[in-house]
Structures are given as structure tokens and as C-alpha cells.
Amino acid sequence: MVTVRAPATSANLGSGFDVFGLALERPGDVIRVERAPKTTIEVTGVGRQYIPEDPVKNTAGIVAKELDAPAHIEIDKGVRPSSGLGSSAASAAAAAVALNELYDCGLTPTELVRIAAEGEAAVSGEAHADNVAPAILGGFTIVTEDDITQVDASIPVVACLPELVISTRDARQVVPKSVGIDELVGTVGNAATLTAGMVRNDPELVGQGLRDNSLTGARESLIDGFDSVRESALSAGATGVAVSGAGPSVLAVCHDGKQGSVASAMLDAFFDAGVEARAYQTSVGGGATILR
Ligand code: HSE
Fold it and tell me: What is the tally of structural domains in the chain?
């Protein structure tokens, strides 16, 4: 039997649509796998009622098939589905790492990212490795067609999750299909600034680089209260704010020791907008870990 924990993740980070991803220290999913003649799945934890236990519809089940590694898989969800915090990626990543260990498949972490992305694709319709890459590798990741680059970073963040549901499909529909040269230049500048900030562990640069006026910015209107949540977070000391993944979670970056005040400000702003929310005071963390 092998048990693995994989973290929640935040994709895009404003200026890195479908490219950037970040592992969060918490929350996370825990998966336990045991060899079995055929794959069966049991789900407990947050939002379990929304997750199919049929292996052909479950991200971990697809991973077991891809690895030719049948198992009884217990999934304890810590990451709420449809949260914008990489819920299915956390399960896919944990399953890939656990089954690789259980069956001694010998795949590298980068190969496991591709397998986990297939698991994600089967349930979400599109293969985005921008959540599974940080869920497996940890830290800050840059995913392109050909490569995955990983940077260990230590940046304090707050992930604020409102009680709203936005489908990734709807969130992708509001993203413009083309952008002008001025927006493109601005986005490249912000993405480069953010990357430098991650390398230097500088929350100011990361916060500046979260700005995005062209692609992910279009999603802000899908989140009730977003403008006031952002203003409140910035007033409380956040260095930058962006929609996390497809939303509805909102990610704020700040200096160490500021997570408490930033989280309270964001929760109050959501409350004033009539939206219940919870906040994770956390930081950039490691990837999937074998617990035993
Ligand atoms: N990059 C993806 C998006 C992440 O924002 O749509 C969610 O799957």
C-alpha cells in the first residue's frame, strides 16, 4: 500500500495563461493505493458528492489505466472541486506518483506530469499541465509545448475560495481569442517580472507580475465582489491579486507575516458582497510526497 499527498495549485498567475503554475502548501488531496485485479475507487472529503467513483470517469482511474497499474484507490479530497485550485490535478498527480511507486514503474517526475495531464484531460476535456506540473514537481512551474521548467520558490500567498461555482468551460469562453500588440507587450513584461520575482523570492516583483489586462483579467467579472476583494487585499498589504486558475478562487501574494490581515480583508470584502468564502493562509510549497 502506498499513500501520497499532492497539493492544491494555482494556474495562470495572471500573466501566464495556460503556462504558469504554483504549488500551495495547503490544502491538498491524499490518495492511498493498493494492488488489485481491477481498478476501484472510493472518494471521501470535500465535495466528494461531485466526484465520480467510476474509474473511466475519474482522473485517478484514468491515470491507473495509462500506467497499466490496476489498484483500489482511496481518494481523500482536501481540495474542493471547481475551486480554481487544481482539484482534479491534485488527485491525478497523487495517483500518478502513488501508482508509479506501487508498481515500481520507474517513470521520472516529468513523465508522470504527462501521465497525470492525460488523467486531467479525460475528465476536463483539455490537457493543461499547468496544474499537474506544480502538483508533482512543487514550486513555480512554466509549461510550454516542449518543456517544463521548475523553480523552487518561497513566496507567501493567500488563496481565498468563495462559495461560487464557475465551470472551466465558461471561464475559457470569456478569454479573448486575440489581443493587440500593446496588450501582448504588457503581458510579456508582467510574465517576465513575475518569473524574476519567483527566482529572487521577491513578493513585490511577483505581485507586479500578477497583473493581466488582456486574458485572465476577463474572468474577474465572473466572480461576485472581485474588484472590492482585490482592493481590500491590496489595502491590507497584498503586493498583487489575480483570479486563480479558472476561478472562483482569488490568489493574493504578500510579504511574510501579512497573510492574516490579507485573508481577513478578502473574507470581509466577499462577505460584504454577499458571498461566503474561506481563505487559506499559505505559501508556495512542494510537490506530491510519498507519506508511506
Ligand atoms: N489554464 C487553465 C485555465 C487552468 O485557466 O483555463 C484550468 O484548467
Answer: 2
